[in-house]
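the two lines:
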Amino acid sequence: MKLSLPLSNPANHSATTGPTSLAVAETEASSPVPSPASQVSTPTPVPAPVSGPADLAAPPRPAAGQVIGQVLPIYFVGDESHSMRGDPIAAVSHGLVDLRDEVATHPLIGKKVRFGIITFADTAETRLELSELSEDLVLPTLSTRGRGTSYASAFEALRHTIPADIALLKVSGFQVHRPVVFFLSDGQPTEKESKWHERLDDLKDPAFKERPNILAFGVGDADPKVIQQLASSPTHAFMMREGVSTAGAIAEFAASMLHSMVSSAERLDHGEQTLEFEKPEGFVQLDAPLV
Amino acid sequence: MAPKRQRSDAAAATEPPAGMRRSADRRPVVRRRTRLVRGPLTIGDPAPAIAARLATAEPYRADTLADGGEVFGLTVRAASVRGLHKRYVGGPRQDDLCLRVHVDIRTLIVAVADGVTAAGRSDLGAALAVRHAAAAVARQLEHGVVQVNWGDVFEHAAWALVEEHRRTGLADAGVGIEGAAGSLATTLTIAVISAPDGPGVSDLVDAGDRGDVDQDPVRVQLAAVGDSPAFVLVEGRFEPIVGEGEPVDGFVGGGVRALPRDPRAFCAGACTLGPGSVLLVCTDGLALPLADGAGEVGRTLARELASPPDIVDFARLLDFSRSTYDDDRTLIAVWPQRPQ
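prediction for all of em together
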């Protein structure tokens, strides 16, 4: 089944999210042609530039000539807890190598994608800073560690990492698309629900401008109800089918993440901006209410 | 073709070798050879060179469309080029444009459309939208309308998409507006350019607005559904007239309005074109790398469009190579005067 998922969070389309949405909403009905009193009349007046201290409060704009390209930041957030030992963690590593090689050798998307890896067990660790996927990029060796599964630490890491990464990309002259997170876990969080939920809410908060689109995947002993809560849209949550091996499901997940990355990056600037995603074979989509 | 001239071997023997001629003082002069400049114009880091596949879609869609000419004292250049991604996969160009001249009322109608990639036949949707919208505007002008009724224009274009969807029975995408949106969705931006002495200008332009120009200004009305913007290029600056505005939360992308679903969600604007200004109507394949116009792409366009390029040069300019930008690009430029 091929899904076409909206890349932007639903909150993006709310008329209350910012001046841009509001400006579009104002033109919903029949818009009168503005009076041609000046040489150029725009439907959404741009505030006159102000000087002095107000400039310091304005969001930084790229300097002239700094827009050099467009990029889609993608994060893989993977479980490194003890239960992933053996074939599952090996399947993750293998999938990441395939992903690097495929993206690096694609003539059009290599420059458009930035990929980062964050893993979590008792704590979260950034295993790969957001990077361009070139053939000579050395990927981290993933290995299981600790006994705990702290979702809160993973969400907190994302909450801190993403704004910094995006700021760096923008300062470097890139136009940035809303980041995508592929979250994979084989177990349930070993911390209080209130703790990881609070961190998740921080990450998905509509007031958090850099909030990512989150695709959540559960394998092994992961709880479908929890996985469903992690996704940024009801259609973004997937659970391994019964009867499928965890390592096999992870391999399917990795192939789908790669496919999604390629097709999303290919169509990055093609107007409608949808995240292309093909559901992995060994998974079910959790968009139906769970009883 | 001129007849070949018979020459004696003796005469041929006294002539310099090919590529040389002799000046009056008998010194050989190297003649400049005419060579085609090959390859795209590169702005910044180039996009990778790929072998373009021929598009396989029916009906036929050319990789590149180039048009232009003079009319009513205006100079027009228009081009639509297939993006690198479509060239790589062999897909059809999903952008389109239309130029329509209304001689009786000295009005030029221009339209651009950017087919939504998720809609399988949006190349067809874009082609239909620009033509039907231009025709709808022309009908209004024939009936003496001075200020274009944009709602009516976009409704007509949307209707054309729904009707085509019904006619061709693309049932896999559903029926009605939603079905047509699934197969033919497209953005649409139209500009109506009234030549200086055309009727209706005096009704629309204040006398005070004409003070600093040598002749009556060229009057432009425009409207857009979606993110295909229009600018006036004046003194190196790109002044936005219509478009979707600043990115949400600082991110580019993030959804676009399109026909046939959103015919009433249009954004309208107006401007006048004085000497030295250029009207630009384009798709986001150009607007995204152009950004606010202050970068390399903006500087290049401003320099090259200071005066109208040749028609084919204009298309080559639009087909510039720049890393990570591989979407279809369409641009219509209108100068309010003839080339010098």
